[in-house]
Amino acid sequence: MRLPVLLGALAAVAALSIALWVGMPETGGVPDPRGVSALGDTIQVMDDEGRLLRLPRPAERIVSLVPAVTEIVFALGAGDRLVGRTRYGTHSAAAQEIPNVGEGVRPSLELVLARNPDLVVLFAGPDNQGVAESLRRAGVPALPIRNNSLQDLRRNLNRLGAVTGCVEQARGLERWIAEGLRSVSDTTRRLVRRSVYYETWVDPPITVGAGSYLDSLITLAGGRNVFGDLAAASPQVSLEAIAVRDPDLVLVSVAAGQPSADPQRRVGWTAVPAVAEGRIRVLDSDLLGRLGPRVVAAAISLARAIHPEAAHRLGSIASIPPPSVCR
């Protein structure tokens, strides 16, 4: 299959993925209740390693080792349940007041257990499997999750609503996100689709592939990811490959307050026509790098970068979720 045809097919898959999110059919409870069930008063949640987590009651002392989870718990109105967070889970002033237990991958078991948690949420994967098992042996429930795609976000909103007892709040947040993403999609749907290279790392060049939510957001924002044919979430590519795929725009994500690594100043990068001609957009890596309640703001940011001519229409879309209270 030729590359343009393949990219077109993958764009259709991404569009379907987005449609499944923004369509969000009602199911009579929390939408999309996969992975969550109840047996009497017991909360049952399926984690992303295929293990069933059972809680006799909603968690009251949560250690979050996933920065996006910290944001979600606050957005559900349950921030007072957080007793520990990773050093990267600092979004919002309130989160910064929570004790820092260090790394989110291969964390210090001693620091985590010192917070006396009744639930630890952590990244699923081989690097954390031993930690999850050690927590369970210590009698502490562990919930390993993935958070790479929009479908993962839906599932995690659902699960976190269940384990905190904030089911209605999770349902409301999911609806709000769906409405926001739908509004961004409606705004960009009839605009000329611009091809983009999204940079997540400079040397070696690392971008986003079809396995990343950012690929879906680029599509939703009226763009086409030039590496959307790669299945990995964060594939390493070459400068030569970027030049061959000749994106209309180069999107560079930079942490707030940090100097931008201008591609035009890099050796060899002017071989990419978009770089040589200054078609570069700088984005906030903290906003774009967290798949949580700020995903609508992230989509708006991408759409503004790809389609500045639509900025006035995008400005009418609410980017901050309404506050929730969960008792």
Name its key features.
4-stranded parallel β-sheet, alpha/beta, 327 residues
Helix/strand order: HEEEEHEHHEHEHHEHEHEHEHHH
Strand order within the widest beta sheet: 5-4-6-7
The level of helicity is: 25-40%
- Tell me the distance between the termini: 55 Å
**Poorly predicted runs:** 4-14, 23-34
* Count of helical stretches: 13
Radius of gyration: 20 Å
Description:
There is one protein chain. The chain is α/β, with parallel strands linked by helices. The chain is 39% helix and 15% strand. It contains 13 helices and eleven strands. The protein has helices at residues 3-23, 67-75, 93-96, 109-113, 126-137, 150-164, 167-188, 213-220, 239-245, 273-276, 285-288, 295-306, 311-314, and strands spanning 36-39, 42-46, 52-55, 62-64, 82-85, 119-123, 142-145, 194-199, 223-225, 249-254, 280-284. The protein has a four-stranded parallel β-sheet, with helices on both faces. It has a four-stranded parallel β-sheet with strand order 9-8-10-11. Strands 1-2-3 form a three-stranded antiparallel β-sheet, with helices on one face. α1 (3-23) crosses α7 (167-188), α1 (3-23) packs across α8 (213-220) and α7 runs parallel beside α12 (295-306). Residues 4-14 and 23-34 have low confidence and may be disordered.
Please give the structural blueprint:
Layout (H helix, E strand, L loop, with lengths): L2 H21 L12 E4 L2 E5 L5 E4 L6 E3 L2 H9 L6 E4 L7 H4 L12 H5 L5 E5 L2 H12 L4 E4 L4 H15 L2 H22 L5 E6 L13 H8 L2 E3 L13 H7 L3 E6 L18 H4 L3 E5 H4 L6 H12 L4 H4 L13
Parallel strand pairs: 4-5, 4-6, 6-7, 8-9, 8-10, 10-11
Antiparallel strand pairs: 1-2, 2-3
Helix pairs in contact: 1-7, 1-8, 6-7, 7-12
